[in-house]
Amino acid sequence: MIIWIVWIIYIGNSQEENVKMKRNVLVTGGTIFVSRTMAQYFRDKGDQVYVLNRNTHAQPEGVILIEADRNEIGDKLRGYNFDAIIFVNGGKLVSS
Length: 96
Description:
Layout: E1 2-10, E2 24-28, H1 33-44, E3 48-53, E4 63-67, E5 84-92
Parallel strand pairs: 2-3, 2-5, 3-4
Antiparallel strand pairs: 1-5
């Protein structure tokens, strides 16, 4: 059994109620099913989506890959500003 943990951190600007602003959304681990689906969801909502991933798997159309390991980001995110960060992490549940 695999357990998925999804944290959504909203950072961004306050928006007027009836005004849709394009947000910059960062999703970690974008090649796994859950995070790939999250990236597609926000892209389809009209947001600019970036995926932080350590490999070069193809991303959905319109999604920008930032290639880096989330444990060793260094300066890979320098110059980016995100309105929301979605941290997706999955792992196997091991019974004792």
